[in-house]
Amino acid sequence: MLAPLTCGVVLLISGGTKAGRPAATRDAFIAMGVPKFLRSEALVTALPYVEVALGVLLLATWSWPLTVVAAATTALFAAYWVLVLRVLRLGEEVDCGCFGALGDDRVSGTTLARNSLLVVLAALAAVFGAAGSGVLPALQDFGSTDWWWLVLTAAVAATAVLVVGLRSPRAVHDDDQLDYPRGPQPDARLEDATGTP
User: Fold this and answer.
1) What is the pTM of this model?
2) CA 29, CA 74: separation in Å to the nearest integer?
3) Is the CB of residue 119 less than 8 Å from the CB of residue 77?
4) 182-185 contact pairs (CB < 8 A, 24+)
5) CA distance readout (Å), 137 to 63, 142, 159
6) What angle do CA 25, 53, 28 make, to 5 degrees?
7) Closest CA to 76 of 98, 108, 103
8) pLDDT in tens, 177-190
9) pLDDT, tens digit, for every residue of 51-87?
10) Best exposed site among 52, 115, 165, 182 by fewest CB in 10 Å?
């Protein structure tokens, strides 16, 4: 049950934090190398709402409808995985905008690991649905111990989200500032003529 539950919550957070920010999503699409035909205004605007809809359906459906939704989610996460891998292979420094304004979204090995886990969880959610179950039916069968495990899992997930949300952007290194002017520079011609700056 944790597979569709986790994917559903991630999509709700991802879509919710991107909703109403099409310019930021478009910039992330360009930076990540999304093909031009997939960067239309309609798709950029719709993406957050598609993620929210998939998140809700992962939580609210079961049996074969859950399998269909989870398969679509797996395809979406796999597409994100390919884009992240491409950025890493090119060695570019890119902000993926994965969670909108929440946290620092610079693409790194951690981003690829997170997306790999999400692809696996989405595939497991499809298997879960194919077995005839879903989040709601599973919750109906919960005992007190199951509820405690769910509460603890939610607490761990909430803590992780807070840590990501409170992480400050990477500090600027001194090397990054070398191109900025540091005041008047001596005239090289004058130095050559007099031997002093």
Assistant:
1) 0.74
2) 19
3) yes
4) none
5) 10, 9, 27
6) 10
7) 98
8) 444 444 455 454 44
9) 999 999 999 999 999 999 999 999 999 999 999 998 8
10) 182
